[in-house]
Design brief:
The complex is a heterotrimer of chains A (about 450), B (about 280) and C (about 290).
Chain A: H1 2-25, E1 44-51, H2 57-73, E2 78-85, H3 87-99, E3 106-109, H4 116-120, H5 128-133, H6 135-139, E4 150-151, E5 154-155, E6 158-170, H7 171-176, H8 185-197, E7 201-204, H9 211-235, H10 243-257, H11 270-278, E8 282-288, H12 292-295, E9 306-309, E10 321-332, H13 339-347, H14 352-360, H15 379-389, E11 393-395, H16 398-401, H17 406-418, H18 423-438
Parallel strand pairs in A: 1-2, 1-3, 7-8, 10-11
Antiparallel strand pairs in A: 3-10, 4-5, 6-8, 6-9, 6-10
Helix pairs in contact in A: 9-10, 9-17, 17-18
Chain B: H1 2-34, H2 39-44, H3 56-63, H4 67-97, H5 104-113, H6 123-132, H7 139-163, H8 168-175, H9 180-191, H10 193-209, H11 212-217, H12 226-231, H13 241-270
Chain C: H1 2-6, H2 8-36, E1 39-40, E2 48-49, H3 53-60, H4 62-94, H5 100-108, H6 115-125, H7 132-139, H8 156-181, H9 185-193, H10 198-227, H11 230-235, H12 247-257, H13 261-286
Antiparallel strand pairs in C: 1-2
Helix pairs in contact in C: 4-8, 4-10, 5-8, 8-10, 10-13, 12-13
The chains are: A alpha/beta (about 450), B mainly alpha (about 280), C mainly alpha (about 290).
Chain lengths: ~450, ~280, ~290
C-alpha cells in the first residue's frame, strides 16, 4: 500500500510539473527568438514559419541571422520569433493553421499551385502593393522571378532564390569512355548504351520518392512538346494524356529497357542515388541545382570531375527548355497586424548579405541582381548560371504548379512508368483523377 | 514414449521462443551496429560490423538532434496521459456499473462510441478549439486528445472488471462507515489493480508512439516528442540516416531498462487478483 | 444503502469528469466531422453544401476502394498474428519456461520502438539490393522470389502488414498472458490430477476464462489496424502510386494536402462506420457479457 501511495504521489508531482512547464512552454524561449532579449518585453511579437530542419543548416542560419538583425535594428518596435519544420510536417502545419485562421505573420511557401489555394481563400496579403511602393526593393529582383507567385496579375510572395534541374555528369568517365555531351535524346540513349556495355551505371535516378522520376519525365516531355505543351497543360487546353506526355513516357521506358538505371533503382532513396554518383559509380545524375554543395564537397570522389548539361530535346523544335523554379518564397498572411513590419522583415532576405549566403552556402541560384564574387562561388554554380542563360524556356516542377492532387499524381504516374508500366494507361489515370478531383 | 514426446515438445517450445527472439532482436541489433557507421558506410555495407566504434553519430544525435529532450517530453506526455486517463476512466467505469441510475447504459454506450473515432479526423476541429483556448503549444494540447481516446477502451475493460466484484464489498464498507468515494479509492481500486495496470500499459503504448498530435499541436521544437524528433533528421533533400539510427538506439536503451525494471511490477500488477476467489 | 448508490451527487462526481472531457474533445469533433462531410470546403472560405455527394464520389473513387481493400488486408494480417500467434507465445510462457521474464521483455520491446524507427529499420531490411529479406532468399537458393518489396505495387501492402505484425505481437501477448495469470491455479491443479492433457486444459480452462479479454483484444486489434497511420506514412507515404494507401493516410492526403476537408471527413466517417461494424461483429462472435444486476 505504501509503495502505491508513493507512486501516486510521484506521478502527481511529475504531472503537475509537466502541466506547469507546459503552460510556460508556449511563452518560453523558442528556438527562434533573438539571442539578446533584453528590453524585448515592450516589443510587439510577430511570428514566422519556415521550412528547414537540422539537415538544412545553411538556410536556417540565414533565417537566424536575418531575424537577429531585424529584431535589433527595426524601427517598428517589433520582434520576430520564428519556427522551422521538416518538409512533411511543414505542409501539414501550414494547412492546419490556414484552416483554423491562425497563420503566422510571415511564412515560407512554395510557388504556383501550392500557394494558390491560400490566395484564393483570402489568406495571403497581396505583397505586390508594398513592392510597388518600394521601387528599390522591387528592382533588386531579376526579370520574371515574380511570375510563379503572381495570381490574377497580383504578386503574393517574394522569391529569394532559384533552382534549376540539370543533368550532372562525370567528366572523367565521359572522357575515358569516349562519350561526348549528348545534343539530342538519341545521343543520350547511345551514351547510356556505351556506359552500360562498359559496366558503368549510366544515370542515377533513385526512384523511391516519386518526384524524382517525375522530374525526369517532365524534362523528357519538355524535349518533346516544349513550352507549348507545358503552357497548354497549365491553362487546361492540353490534357495529361496528350500525345506529348505519352510519348515522353515511352521514351522513359526506352531508357529503362536500355538498362540506364542502377540496380534496385525503384527502391533507392535520394541519398543513395546521390551517393552512387558521388562515388563515381554512375556516369550521370539528374537532379536539382541544390545538390551542388554535396557534389563538390572535398570528400566526394566525384568533386573533381563534375559537369552539367541540360537533357537534350528529342524534337529540336521544342527549343532548349529545362525545369526550373523560384524558391525560398516568403509571404505575408492576411490577418497580420502590421504589414509594413512584415514586409520590412521579408525585405532583409534579399539584402546583399542574405543573398550572398543563399548563393555561397545554400547553393541557391540568384533571384536578385546581386553581384557575386566568382572566386567564392562553387564553379558548378557558375556553370549552371551560364546554362540557365542559354535556355529558351523554363518550366517549374509540375508538382509545384499543380500542388497536391494532380501534381502528386503526375509524380506517381512517372514512378509507375519508370517501373515499366504502360505510359498511356497511367497518363489516362492522371487525367481521370484531375477530372474526378475537380468535382470533390 | 511419453517422455520422448515431452522432451521434444519441450524442445519445440524453446525453438519457437528462440525463433521469435531472433526475429524481434535482430532488427534492433542491426540498429545498434549501424549507429557506429558513417552515412556512406551505411549504404555500402549495411549488414557488416562497423569499421570503427565511431561515436560521432551519438554526439550529433544528442547535441544537434536534442534527442534527450524529446525523450523526456515523450515521458512527460505519456505518464500524464496514463495518469489522467486511468483516473477518469476508473471513476467513470465505477459510476457506470456500481451506482444505480437510469441513464447509465446510455452513457456507457456513448463512451464506447469513442472507440470508433478515427483519431486523425479530429485534428482540424481540435486545433481550432485549442487555438481559441490558447492551448496550442502546451503539453495539454497533446495530453488531452490522448486521454480522450484512451477513455473508451479503458472504461470497457474496467467496467468489465467492476461488474464482477460482488456487491457485498460496498455493503460491508458502508456498514463500516466508509463513504462511497472512500470505498472506491481504498477498497475497490486496489482490487482492480490487474485491470488498472492493463489499461495503463495500453494507454501508455498508444500515447508513446503517436506522431501526429505532437507534430501538429506543438510548435516549439523544445517540446516535441520522440517520434517527431526522429523525423527532424530528415532534411529537405537529404536525410541523416545514421544520426537517426543513433537517436533511436539512445531511446531504446532506457525503454528496455525501464521495462525490465517495471516489468515485474507490471505483470505482478496485472495478475494481482489471481489467487482471490 | 441503495439510496446512497443512487445519489446524484456521487454519480456526477464519478462520471462527470470523464464525460465532460470526452464530450467536449471527443464528441464535438465527431459531430463536426459529420456535418463537414456534407460540404465541399477548404475551410478557408465559405463551403458549399453538397449533401451526400462526397459519399457517392467516394464509391467511384478507385483510390478509396483500394484503401479499403488494404485496410481489410491489414485487419486480416493483424488478427492472424496478434491472436493465434500471440496466444501461442503466451501459452508457452504461461506454462513455465526458463527465462520467461527475459522472453517477455524481448517480445514486448518492438511495441515500444516508435513507428518512425521501425519504419526506418524495415526499409533497410526490405531493400532489394542489400536488404536482409532478399539476402535470405539468395541464401535459401530462391532468387526468383526476390522482389522490390516496398516499391512493387503488388507486394508493398503485404510487406507493411508483416512489419505491423512484427511490432505488436509481443504487446498483445503480454495482455493475454496477464489474463491467463488471472485464472485461479487450483483449476489447473484439479484438471491435472484428473489426467487432462495440457491441450485439453488450454481448450477448456484457459480459453473460456480469457474470452472477455480476448474480445477486448480483438477490438483493439481490428480498430487499431483500421486506424493505423504512422508506420505507413513513414515507410511509403501510401505509395508507390497509392498501392499501400489506407483509409487514414488517404484521409490525411485529401485533408491536409489537397485541402478537400469535406471529402476527407467523409472518408473519416466511413472509417468510423467500419470500426462500428468491427465492434458489433466482435460482440457477436465473442458473445456479449450479460450485465449482472
Amino acid at each position: 500500500m505504501r509503495a502505491k501511495k508513493l507512486l501516486a504521489v510521484v506521478t502527481a508531482l511529475l504531472v503537475t510539473a509537466a502541466m506547469l512547464s507546459g503552460c510556460g512552454g508556449s511563452g518560453g524561449n523558442g528556438d527562434g527568438s533573438t539571442k539578446d532579449s533584453a528590453g524585448s518585453k515592450d516589443k510587439v511579437q510577430m511570428t514566422a514559419m519556415f521550412l528547414g530542419s537540422t539537415q538544412d543548416q545553411a538556410v536556417v542560419d540565414i533565417i537566424q541571422d536575418v531575424t537577429d538583425k531585424f529584431n535589433a535594428e527595426n524601427e517598428f518596435g517589433v520582434e520576430f520569433k520564428f519556427e522551422t519544420y521538416e518538409n512533411e510536417q511543414y505542409k501539414t502545419k501550414l494547412t492546419t493553421v490556414m484552416a483554423s485562421n491562425s497563420a503566422p505573420d510571415v511564412f515560407f511557401t512554395w510557388s504556383a499551385g501550392y500557394l494558390q489555394p491560400f490566395v484564393e481563400g483570402g489568406k495571403v496579403y497581396e505583397i505586390g502593393q508594398l513592392l510597388d511602393q518600394d521601387s528599390e526593393w522591387k528592382e533588386r529582383f531579376n526579370e520574371g522571378v515574380f511570375g510563379p507567385v503572381t495570381y490574377d496579375g497580383k504578386i503574393y510572395a517574394v522569391p529569394h532564390g532559384q533552382t534549376l534541374g540539370v543533368m550532372f555528369y562525370n567528366t572523367r568517365l565521359f572522357e575515358e569512355n569516349n562519350v561526348g555531351v549528348p545534343e539530342t535524346f538519341d545521343e543520350l540513349l547511345a551514351a547510356c548504351n556505351t556506359f552500360k556495355e562498359n559496366g558503368i551505371t549510366p544515370i542515377s535516378v533513385p526512384s523511391k520518392d516519386a518526384w524524382i522520376p517525375g522530374q525526369l519525365l517532365q524534362q523528357v516531355a519538355n524535349g518533346i512538346g516544349g513550352m507549348d505543351l507545358f503552357e497548354g497543360t497549365v491553362d487546361g487546353s492540353k490534357k495529361w494524356n496528350d500525345d506529348g506526355y505519352v510519348e515522353a513516357g515511352k521514351q522513359l521506358i526506352q531508357l529503362v529497357e536500355a538498362g540506364a538505371f542502377p540496380d534496385g533503382y525503384l527502391g533507392m532513396t535520394n541519398d543513395e542515388g546521390r551517393d552512387l554518383f558521388i562515388k563515381e559509380k554512375a556516369a550521370m545524375y539528374y537532379m536539382g541545382s541544390w545538390d551542388i554543395g554535396l557534389l563538390s564537397d572535398e570528400s566526394a570522389p566525384v568533386s573533381k570531375s563534375v559537369g552539367v548539361f541540360n537533357i537534350p530535346p528529342t524534337d529540336s523544335s521544342s527549343g532548349n527548355v529545362a525545369i526550373g523554379d523560384v524558391d525560398q518564397c516568403l509571404a505575408i498572411s492576411a490577418n497580420t497586424q502590421n504589414t509594413e513590419a512584415a514586409a520590412a522583415y521579408i525585405k532583409m532576405f534579399s539584402d546583399v548579405e542574405a543573398q550572398e549566403a543563399y548563393a555561397y552556402n545554400a547553393d541557391y541560384l540568384l533571384s536578385t541582381k546581386t553581384e557575386l564574387d566568382e572566386s567564392k562561388l562553387n564553379p558548378l554554380f557558375v556553370e549552371i548560371t551560364k546554362l540557365q542563360q542559354e535556355l529558351t524556356g523554363v518550366t517549374p516542377w509540375l508538382d509545384r504548379v499543380f500542388g497536391a492532387g494532380e501534381g502528386v499524381e503526375f509524380n506517381n504516374a512517372a514512378q509507375a512508368i519508370i517501373a515499366g508500366k504502360d505510359a498511356g494507361v497511367h497518363m489516362d489515370a492522371i487525367q481521370q483523377f484531375a477530372e474526378d478531383n475537380a468535382d470533390r | 514414449m511419453k517422455d520422448i514426446i515431452k522432451v521434444t515438445l519441450g524442445g519445440a517450445k524453446y525453438i519457437i521462443l528462440m525463433f521469435f527472439t531472433v526475429l524481434f532482436l535482430y532488427p534492433i541489433f542491426w540498429l545498434f551496429l549501424n549507429s557506429f557507421k558513417s552515412g556512406t558506410e551505411l549504404f555500402e555495407t549495411p549488414w557488416s560490423l562497423p569499421g570503427t566504434l565511431d561515436l560521432s553519430n551519438y554526439v550529433r544525435a544528442i547535441q544537434v538532434g536534442e534527442i534527450g529532450r524529446y525523450f523526456l517530453n515523450s515521458v512527460i506526455v505519456a505518464i500524464a496521459v496514463v495518469f489522467f486517463a486511468t483516473l477518469l476512466s476508473a471513476m467513470a467505469a465505477y459510476g457506470l456499473t456500481r451506482l444505480k441510475w437510469k441513464l447509465s447504459k446510455l452513457v456507457l454506450s456513448i463512451f464506447l462510441l469513442g472507440m470508433m473515432i478515427p483519431t486523425h479526423a479530429t485534428i482540424v476541429p481540435l486545433f481550432s478549439f485549442f487555438n481559441k483556448m490558447k492551448l496550442i503549444n502546451t503539453y495539454a494540447a497533446v495530453i488531452i486528445p490522448h486521454v480522450v481516446f484512451a477513455i473508451p477502451i479503458s472504461i470497457l475493460i474496467l467496467s468489465g472488471f467492476f461488474s464482477s466484484i460482488p456487491k457485498e464489498m460496498e455493503e460491508a464498507a458502508i456498514m463500516d462507515g466508509c463513504s462511497i468515494p472512500k470505498t472506491f479509492f481504498q477498497i475497490i481500486c486496489p482490487m482492480a489493480m490487474p485491470s488498472i495496470v492493463t489499461v495503463s500499459v495500453i494507454t501508455f503504448i498508444t500515447a508513446w508512439n503517436d506522431l501526429l498530435f505532437p507534430q501538429i499541436f506543438l510548435s516549439d521544437p523544445k517540446m516535441m516528442t520522440l517520434p517527431v524528433g526522429l523525423t527532424a533528421f530528415q532534411g529537405r533533400y537529404s536525410t541523416d540516416y545514421v544520426g537517426m539510427i543513433a537517436a533511436v538506439v539512445i531511446t531504446i536503451i532506457p525503454s528496455i531498462i525501464v521495462y525490465s525494471i517495471l516489468h515485474e511490477k507490471i505483470i505482478d500488477g496485472m495478475t494481482a487478483g489471481a489467487v482471490k476467489g | 444503502m441503495d439510496k446512497l448508490l443512487q445519489s446524484k451527487k456521487y454519480i456526477l462526481f464519478f462520471v462527470a469528469p470523464a464525460f465532460l472531457v470526452f464530450a467536449v474533445f471527443g464528441l464535438f469533433p465527431i459531430i463536426y466531422n459529420f456535418v463537414l462531410s456534407l460540404y465541399r470546403t477548404d475551410l478557408m472560405s465559405e463551403g458549399t453544401f453538397v449533401g451526400l455527394k462526397n459519399y457517392s464520389n467516394l464509391l467511384k473513387d478507385k483510390i478509396f476502394i483500394g484503401s479499403v481493400k488494404n485496410n481489410l488486408l491489414m485487419v486480416a494480417g493483424s488478427l492472424l498474428a496478434h491472436l493465434p500467434i500471440a496466444l501461442l507465445l503466451a501459452s508457452i510462457i504461461f506454462n513455465k519456461v526458463k527465462g520467461s521474464r527475459f522472453f517477455q521483455s524481448i517480445f514486448f520491446l518492438p511495441s515500444v520502438v516508435c513507428g518512425v524507427a521501425v519504419g526506418l529499420t524495415w526499409s533497410f531490411i526490405y531493400n532489394s539490393e542489400f536488404g536482409m529479406v532478399n539476402a535470405i532468399l539468395d541464401f535459401l537458393n530462391l532468387p526468383g522470389l526476390k522482389h522490390q518489396w516496398l516499391s512493387d505495387e503488388k507486394t508493398v501492402i503485404f510487406a507493411i502488414i508483416i512489419v505491423v505484425m512484427w511490432q505488436y505481437v509481443g504487446y498483445h501477448m503480454v495482455i493475454q498472458l496477464a489474463a491467463m495469470k488471472n485464472i485461479d491455479p487450483t483449476l489447473y491443479e484439479a484438471a491435472s490430477s484428473d489426467g487432462a492433457s495440457k491441450w485439453r486444459q488450454f481448450k477448456d480452462i484457459t480459453l473460456p476464462l480469457i474470452k472477455p479479454i480476448l474480445k477486448v483484444d480483438a477490438i483493439l486489434i481490428i480498430t487499431g489496424s483500421l486506424k493505423y497511420f504512422d508506420l505507413i506514412f513513414v515507410m511509403t507515404g501510401g505509395g508507390p502510386n497509392h498501392a499501400s494507401e489506407v483509409l487514414s493516410t488517404y484521409m490525411y492526403y485529401q485533408g491536409f494536402r489537397t485541402m478537400k476537408y469535406g471529402y476527407a471527413s467523409a472518408i473519416g466517417n466511413i472509417l468510423l462506420l467500419l470500426c462500428a461494424i468491427a465492434i458489433l461483429t466482435c460482440n457477436l462472435i465473442f458473445g456479449k457479457k450479460k450485465e449482472e444486476d
